[in-house]
Amino acid sequence: MKRGKPEVGSIHLKAYQEGNNVIIEVGDDGNGIDTENVKNKAIERGLVTPEQAVNLTQKEIIDFLFMPSFSMAKKITDVSGRGVGLDVVKSNIEALGGDVEVKSKLGEGSRFIVRLPLTLAIIQALLVEVHNELFAIALGSITTIEDVAISDIKYVQAEEVINLRGTVVPLIRLNRILEIESEEEPENMTVVIVSKGEKQAGLIVDKLLGQQEIVIKSLGKFISNSKIISGATILGDGKIALILDVNTLM
Fold first, then answer.
1. Is the pLDDT assigned to residue 144 strictly greater than 90?
2. Which of 18, 99, 147, 215 is least enclosed by beta carbons within 10 angstroms?
3. Can you give the pTM of this predicted structure?
4. Burial annotation 189-228 (CB, 10 A radius, 16+ → b, else e)
């Protein structure tokens, strides 16, 4: 009431498709998350030192709320205050191949954004080659494709990045992530820029083999330990291409 808000709050629910994901947004017009209190609780719990806490971003602070047994409740009851709610939400969403993000402004409200992959058997994908191995990337995740010179690669905290029209984009060398033996590095590299929400990354590939509609095949327990690979597809010539899960790479 002090902020001139109605006595009864409002909850907004929105669902829509974005590329090959279903986005579910749940927002309210409440008080929002007091990140300063969350940060102090994290320091109290020994999750971060006071010196480290100074440099934490708002997102990093809010992420503490998803940690097991982390709670802001002042009183523990039979049904609340044990710090398992958001932890369960996050683990179940990630088990489905999705992710959850929180945006909040103190005094204005919070917004929870859940991204879940579409359970479609057929998707539009870009086929790429990494040292003679075939991979597929969902077109819905791709923002653009760039030809990048080795000299344009810079380093931020020992990580490779490029400046893409004013935006710093981290690079991911797929051959290292997928443990594929590398060859001699060319002067120019093909970089597939992918996005997940507001995040972007550049996947370095050797060749672009074109766009194709592919049928997703489950790998079952064969590659169950690799979250990077979400499935496979059999191409018209009988070759197999593994489907990369962009969400886990970012």
1. yes
2. 147
3. 0.55
4. bbbbbbbbeeebbbbbbbeebeebebebeeeeeeeeeeeb
